[in-house]
Amino acid sequence: MSAQPTALCAGVPPRIAAFLQVATPQAWVERALADPEVLLLDHAACEQKAAATALSLMHRYAALERLVERMSRLAREELRHFEQVRAQMRRAGIHFRPLSASRYAAGLRASVRHTEPARLLDTLLVGALIEARSCERFALLAPRLPEPLGRFYGGLLASEARHFEDYLLLAREAAIAGSIAEAEVEVRLGELLAVEAVLVTAPDPQFRFHSGLPESSAAS
Ligand SMILES: [Fe+2]
Ligand SMILES: [Fe+2]
């Protein structure tokens, strides 16, 4: 695979860099910097969806004390991020318009198994992957974006890294509760990391916050 190991990218928290299988292609970073309107519109939608996902997990697994506690806090933080992105949009004179969703979340969700306890484990591992990738992209964009957007993106790093750790912790706990061996969790995580790596590095005709290699650069 032509993408660099993530560890080579300055500014990405080491835990996140070590976790992800591949780095975001540089061409995606350049594309994002060239289209801040779509970047912010889709970013706002991602924050809203992250809150909705946390709320739906709280409903589905209402008996799991730690999951409910962590997801409740996470949902509040994601909604706060949503409000902050909308404020950045207002400041930049960007008006809301609906965007089609990227292939990323749907592509990951398609890998989630349908029966418990595998379903919960996969859902939580996918949550960790999405948070890790978001964190990495904030780190890559923050030093290159104009202010106040750069500072804002830099400030989101810490909470997304914490969300990543929350999902990972809950996944480990779900595995123990579901009698899934640690080795099996590692294998499953490796499979999902590989799916995620393809989604971010394969040519993608659409630009979004979690999109893949911009198609124009794939052709060259
Ligand atoms: Fe967020
Ligand atoms: Fe998050």
How does this structure look, described?
The chain is mainly alpha-helical. Helix content is 69%, strand content 2%. It is built from nine helices and two strands; from the N terminus they run ααααααααββα. The chain has helices at 14-19, 26-34, 36-60, 65-91, 103-109, 118-141, 149-177, 182-201, 215-219; strands spanning 203-204, 213-214. A two-stranded parallel ribbon has the order 1-2. Helix 3 runs antiparallel to helix 4 (65-91), helix 6 (118-141) packs antiparallel against helix 7 and helix 6 (118-141) packs across helix 8 (182-201). The longest helix is centred in the C-terminal third of the chain and has 29 residues, at 149-177. The model is unreliable at 1-8 (pLDDT under 50). Residues 50, 78, 131, 160, 163 line the site of one fe (ii) ion.
What is the gist of this entry?
By secondary structure, this protein is mainly alpha-helical. It has helices at residues 14-19, 26-34, 36-60, 65-91, 103-109, 118-141, 149-177, 182-201, 215-219; strands at 203-204, 213-214.
SSE topology:
Blueprint: H1 14-19, H2 26-34, H3 36-60, H4 65-91, H5 103-109, H6 118-141, H7 149-177, H8 182-201, E1 203-204, E2 213-214, H9 215-219
Parallel strand pairs: 1-2
Helix pairs in contact: 3-4, 4-7, 5-8, 6-7, 6-8
Main sheet makeup: 2 strands, parallel
Broad structural category:
mainly alpha
Helix content: 55-70%
Q: What strand line-up does the widest sheet have?
A: 1-2
Radius of gyration: 17 Å
Shape, please?
globular
